[in-house]
């Protein structure tokens, strides 16, 4: 059993196994399920991810307000055309993250990993990195297990709720989980994966939650796209050999305390940030007549 990131890392390193194997053992004990059942459930969730990450790539999906309708298809066309400054890979990552956001906004089926508001980050990273490395499904699911184990530690010792900790606790947590998974997929060590986890969370420390009109669309969808990219650049920094000067559990604690320090207006209440701008208030009035 493990309760902290350092404990999870220590168990993996002491036994010379991947973190996913420690997480798998923990899942088997906690839920009294076989390894096959755990992977079957992971596979079901990954299938949902595949569908949500692709469903809006060709056409926009209708939603209340329609604030992000067509974003994913526009980004996908840009990726197919060469992807401008960052190229087709990064633009495809963003398009897939945006697609999940559109599916969520249109009341479609998504995998809340770890939340609905952050549902595009892990799918975009897992799917696109899996394609880059020509990975089989099982290897991708193992990376999902690592991300899940780290997410469990986050929920135990901090929060993944935007209402409690701001968007750093939703999209930031997802980015940190995805960064660790990406390192694993790239063949990095467990310790390298934890460094990537730290960098991703550091990169969005203090990120507020300010949904315009109270809808999980803007700027939520854009933050899914940007935090998917954050996960990948954090993974690359760690793979380059850069190490975190702050231990992962302390980074997580800092995120939690930062979130608790944010005023209520910046924690999913739609009373501050972009939601409180004149344009944001007008959008709310136009949609809801308030």
What is the helix content? 55-70%
CATH second-level architecture: Orthogonal Bundle
What global shape is seen? globular
Classified by CATH, the class is Mainly Alpha
Unreliable parts: none
Question: How would you describe this protein?
Answer:
- It is a single chain.
- With 290 residues, this protein is mainly α.
- It has one domain: 2-methylcitrate dehydratase PrpD (Orthogonal Bundle).
- Helix content is 65%, strand content 0%.
- It is built from 13 helices and no strands.
- The N and C termini lie far apart (50 Å).
- The relative contact order is 0.13.
- The mean pLDDT is 98.
Notable characteristics:
65% helix; mainly alpha; 0% strand; globular
Short description:
This protein has 290 residues and is mainly alpha-helical. It is built from 13 helices and no strands. The longest helix has 21 residues.
């Amino acid at each position: 059993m493990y309760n902290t990131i350092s404990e999870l890392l220590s168990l993996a390193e002491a036994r010379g196994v991947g973190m996913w194997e420690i997480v798998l053992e923990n899942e088997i004990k906690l839920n009294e399920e076989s390894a096959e059942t755990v992977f079957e459930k992971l596979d079901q969730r990954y299938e949902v991810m595949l569908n949500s990450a692709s469903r809006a790539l060709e056409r926009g999906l209708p939603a209340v307000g329609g604030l992000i309708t067509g974003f994913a298809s526009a980004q996908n066309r840009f990726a197919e055309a060469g992807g401008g400054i960052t190229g087709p890979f990064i633009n495809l990552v963003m398009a897939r993250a945006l697609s999940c956001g559109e599916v969520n906004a249109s009341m479609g089926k998504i995998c809340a990993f770890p939340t609905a508001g952050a549902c595009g980050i892990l799918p975009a990273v897992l799917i696109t990195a899996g394609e880059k490395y020509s990975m089989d499904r099982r290897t991708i699911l193992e990376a999902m297990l690592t991300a899940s184990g780290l997410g469990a530690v986050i929920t135990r010792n901090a929060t993944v709720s935007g209402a409690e900790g701001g968007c750093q606790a939703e999209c930031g947590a997802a980015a940190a989980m995805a960064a660790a998974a990406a390192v694993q997929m790239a063949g990095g060590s467990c310790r390298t994966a934890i460094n990537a986890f730290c960098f991703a969370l550091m990169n969005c420390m203090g990120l507020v939650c300010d949904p315009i009109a109270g809808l999980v669309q803007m700027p939520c969808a854009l933050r899914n796209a940007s935090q998917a990219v954050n996960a990948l650049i954090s993974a690359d920094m760690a793979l380059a050999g850069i190490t975190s000067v702050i231990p992962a559990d302390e980074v997580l604690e800092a995120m939690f305390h930062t979130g608790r320090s944010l005023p209520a207006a910046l924690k999913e209440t739609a009373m501050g940030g972009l939601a409180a701008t004149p344009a944001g208030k007008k959008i709310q009035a136009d949609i809801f007549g308030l």
